[in-house]
Amino acid sequence: MCGIIGYVGPDQAVPVLLEGLRKLEYRGYDSAGLAVVNGKGVEVAKEAGSVSLLEAAVGSAPPSGSLGIAHTRWATHGEPTRLNAHPHLSCDGRIALVHNGIIENAAALKERLLAEGHAFQSSTDTEVLAHLIEEHYAGDLEVAVRAALTRVEGTYGLAVVHCAEPDRIVAARMGSPLLIGVGIGAQYLASDAAAVVGHTRRVVYLEDGELAVITRDGYRTTDLQNTHVNKTIAEISWDVKEIQKGGYQHFMLKEIHEQPESLRNALRGRLVRGEGTARLGGLNLTSKELAAVDRIVITACGTSWHAALVGEYMLEECTGLPVEVEYASEFRYRNPVVDAHTLVIGISQSGETADTQMAMREAKRKGAKVLGIINVVGSTIAREADGGIYLHAGPEIGVASTKAFTSQILTLALFTLFLGRRRLLSAERGRTIAMAMDELPEQVAQILAKEEEVREMARLYFEATNALYLGRGYNFPVALEGALKLKEISYIHAEGYPAAEMKHGPIALIDENMPVVVLAIRDGVYKKVLSNIQEVKARRGRIIAIANDVDGEIRNLADHIFTVPQTLDMLTPVLTAVPLQLLAYHIAVLRGCDVDRPRNLAKSVTIE
Ligand code: G6P
Questions:
Q1: Strand 342-348 vs strand 369-374: parallel, antiparallel, or unpaired?
Q2: Is the C-beta atom of 375 inside 6 A of ligand 1?
Q3: Angle value at C-alpha 308, between 305 and 314, nearest 5 degrees
Q4: Closest alpha carbon to 24 in 12, 35, 36, 34
Q5: Mean pLDDT, residues 135-141
Q6: Deepest of 65, 333, 482, 545, by most Cβ within 10 A of its Cβ?
């Protein structure tokens, strides 16, 4: 979703800004623009489409100046056109700003500003801010921004410049992430650490209601009432190499192949093999608080929601506690039954998904303890939660989530082990689970070594227009995730279903043109799944089975079989998800789709 980069320092701003925008491309966007402040005023360039089009537009004579702001836009209000791209300007063209988020009272503000003679160029909510700041400007940009923001309802991550103040960027945050990259003699501003990590690893995360003035030599942070706020500098632990493709054609493929390593990182230092439990240092829950938990609610969006469903099955099986999984966007707007005995777990790769953040705030307000299972260290949700578990999967750039999904499941398994051992699980059972978890990275590596088999299947099915994914038990959420992966990046309509539920509707769609991917693992529901495959076969559907072996009944039923190693039922999703990720990837590549930047999707959805 929208991205911001700002720079003030000794060098020309445009190359730094363009490079930053390229690092933000993965978030998903549809237009891009930049503004540079120099002796002549504010020079702006913007384009609909990609950052390379913007680069071509500024050409060999880009605006000169060593202070600037830039933006990738993901359209919410107004089409993705050049006029609607950021930066937006005040009437006099002296103020330029870029904005992530949504101004909810934009229509009312615009009506008033129009009546007072302001002229608008775009149909965005953001442009209202430029005019509002202009209205309050009397020689001090910081004062004007602060005054304007008191009139604003909604969310923002904001960077503003004024041509009469060519040494500073004013930034403010409310509900949309923003950080300062702290350099020596140069400072950066970004919505995402990926845009600055090539320059500095030292960052300051702004919190909601904070405003920063950034100059070449440093930064000053205050709240909206102009009270000084002390900030600590955090160190980014990952390296710029981790956000490069490393020889792979796409980030998604690289990240699929990183899974043995990302799974090892999730386990590192956490599995207590001898005692069959897990050591989780960041939960911040006392034994008394843990013992008081009588119910768990897991809330998330998208792929993280699918991981949550696996977590529900695991936690109920191993802790005996009732567990519910809620779409964060639903949870936050109803009146959920949550109290001090409810443990609420929010799962989010980015740690910035607005709905998940708000659902967790709502739970906290009602007195629940709130944990986050998050990948991005220092992200908003990670900071707001009472405690949590980091995935340590490294940056995930591909818009379609892959390695985060398997790490989320493994992390949920660690938490299950931890809580289960305090409740139902014997030490022996705990040790069995721990041993099986330990084997997963190597088992995933074995699956990845057979990528060519998946590519072959992709060649047979890439022209399909529909696909059905079926699974039961622990593999029902994997069926949902497999279907989501396919539709996200190949634009083939796909549905995931509990295998037995198929006969209550989707069975009507099955004919010889319908590929049906079935998760047919030798687990507790294997025989039942075989019966469901019979039902598909009887209607001439084409079966792609993900199975543990090619023997027995499955051989006669399936058109194609891809085998995965055997593990405990609760851990099978970590293995079965991998061939489905590869299948979606290769089908999308064969269809000529932009795998890392699928149309209309955003990596991190920071609006509701
Ligand atoms: C977007 C992404 C998905 C992701 C979802 C939740 O829709 O495209 O890949 O699963 O957001 O994101 P989160 O960062 O909260 O896990």
A1: parallel
A2: no
A3: 160
A4: 34
A5: 97
A6: 482
Instruction: Report residue 45: phi and psi, to 5°.
Output: -135, 135
pLDDT tens column, 263-275: 999 999 999 999 9
Q: Report phi then psi at 580, rounded to 5.
A: -70, -35
Q: 260, 606, 585: which is closest to 400 by C-alpha?
A: 585
Nearest to 576 by CA among 481, 458, 462: 481
Whole-number pLDDT of residue 142: 98
Q: What is the rounded CA–CA span in Å between residue 397 and residue 395?
A: 6
Calculate the alpha carbon distances from 4 to 15, 70, 228, 508 in Å.
Answer: 15, 6, 24, 47
Which sequence positions are flagged as catalytic? 2, 603
Crossing angle of helices 451-461 and 572-590, rounded to 10°: 50
How far apart (Å, rounded) are the C-alpha atoms in residues 153 and 144?
A: 16
Neighbour tally for 100: CB within 10 Å: 29
Residue 230 Cα to ligand 1 midpoint, Å, equals 32
301 lines ligand 1 (CB under 6 A): yes
Copy the structure tokens of residue 425. Answer: 């699980």
Asked if residue 605 has its Cβ within 6 Å of ligand 1, the reply is yes
Give the up-direction half-sphere exposure of residue 367: CA atoms within 13 A in the CB hemisphere. Answer: 9
Most distant CA pair in the chain: distance in Å? 81
Q: How far apart are CA 553 and CA 253, in angstroms?
A: 33
* Residue keyed to tokens 């768990």: 296
Helix/strand number for the chain, H first, E second: 19, 26
Q: Exposed (0-12), middle (13-18) or buried (19+): which is 161, by Cβ within 10 Å?
A: buried
Strand extents, DSSP E, 301-424: 323-327, 342-348, 369-374, 387-390
* Lookup: tokens for 350: 């980015």
Is-contact 431 276, C-beta < 8 A? Answer: yes
| pLDDT tens track for 415-449 | 999 999 999 999 999 999 999 999 999 999 999 99
Q: Which phi and psi (to 5°) does residue 389 adopt?
A: -135, 125
604 in ligand 1 pocket by Cβ < 6 Å?
Answer: yes
Query: pLDDT tens digit string along 255-313?
Result: 999 999 999 999 999 999 999 999 998 999 999 999 999 999 999 999 999 999 999 99
Residue 115 alpha carbon to ligand 1 centre in Å: 41
**Partner residues linked to 296 by β-bridges:** 323, 343
Residues 6+ apart with CB under 8 A from 477: 306, 307, 309, 310, 313, 471, 573
DSSP state of 584: H
347 has which bridge partners? 373
Note the pLDDT tens digit of each residue in 312-343: 999 999 999 999 999 999 998 888 899 999 99
DSSP letter assigned to residue 101: S
CA of 350 to the centre of ligand 1 (A): 7
Q: Is 59 exposed, middle or buried (0-12, 13-18, 19+ CB in 10 A)?
A: exposed
